[in-house]
Fold this sequence. Notes:
mainly alpha; disordered N terminus
Amino acid sequence: xxxxxxxxxxxxxxxxxxxxxxxxxxxxxxxxxxxxxxxxxxxxxxxxxxxxxxxxxxxxxxxxxxxxxxxxxxxxxxxxxxxxxxxxxxxxxxxxxxxxxxxxxxxxxxxxxxxxxxxxxxxxxxxxxxxxxxxxxxxxxxxxxxxxxxxxxxxxxxxxxxxxxxxxxxxxxxxxxxxxxxxxxxxxxxxxxxxxxxxxxxxxxxxxxxxxxxxxxxxxxxxxxxxxxxxxxxxxxxxxxxxxxxxxxxxxxxxxxxxxxxxxxxxxxxxxxxxxxxxxxxxxxxxxxxxxxxxxxxxxxxxxxxxxxxxxxxxxxxxxxxxxxxxxxxxxxxxxxxxxxxxxxxxxxxxxxxxxxxxxxxxxxxxxxxxxxxxxxxxxxxxxxxxxxxxxxxxxxxxxxxxxxxxxxxxxxxxxxxx
Length: 419
């Protein structure tokens, strides 16, 4: 309301300057998001045709579903980028409670795939609650951190409650046997804690605890420990535990510098498991080579730069923490996925944001980017208003002195005025 009143009270040049600043602040982040989504559609079409024909007798099955998800996510982006993110605050707690209920129910009544229950199937619609949890938990923690204020730096009133909330969120995700998503959620919440003003020594203690908890989660689950054991050298068991990693490396190696050409991948013909989902980056490398994978990497790097720039220029602490949470979500998950495909990290099972096939993933990520774009708009709008107020004040001062020359210490020599 205050912003709207300020806009109505401004002169036309100031309003024009504000509109230009708002467009300048949004367009690069939006452009990068659109380019990444377009890249994803191209490679989902390429990587899924063989599997889609075998399973559904039509090569466009997965591409068409992804296109619908992109449409829904794009609509959510356009809506949320126009809604003041402060108005979302009353919805954060109910949304978090609803997502928590879904996370509790999905291991009981969800659809089982590869030994894990992570999805609800409602007719032809498949929903993955953990993708909703990334946005819900990120917004909830942002609001919680802002409400704590300076108490966040206190051990009892800030750090301990945060650890309890973090442990609860991670426990709900791990119940679905989804360690990769738990890692991403941990990164989102920890980044929010840091952006909110948490102490460095508390952060060090928290990271140490997460490392220990992560290690115990791996060694106590046989299939996770097997992945870790084969991670160092997947070729020692390339027909069993190391099969997926070795096929991904073959795909990347076959691409060379320039790739074998769009649509000419060999690994997508049922050699590489999950070629259109978690391991789509390997198909990017095979078909477009080092050039293509570098461009994708640069796309996410550019997203990180623009996203954290939005956080630094946010008009308030809530905008800062929300922008940090969303930017960390997209870029950290992309980093983990690409590290998994290149065998830099053990297989974690997280999709490449905006590129991998997955309706819930792409739709929720686009919705989150819509919120991020609104934070960017609010920040550039506030900066434009501040600049406009300074400009108008300078003009009034100049008119009061009877001339148009600035009062500047560097302006020592001024032209003589005729008497």
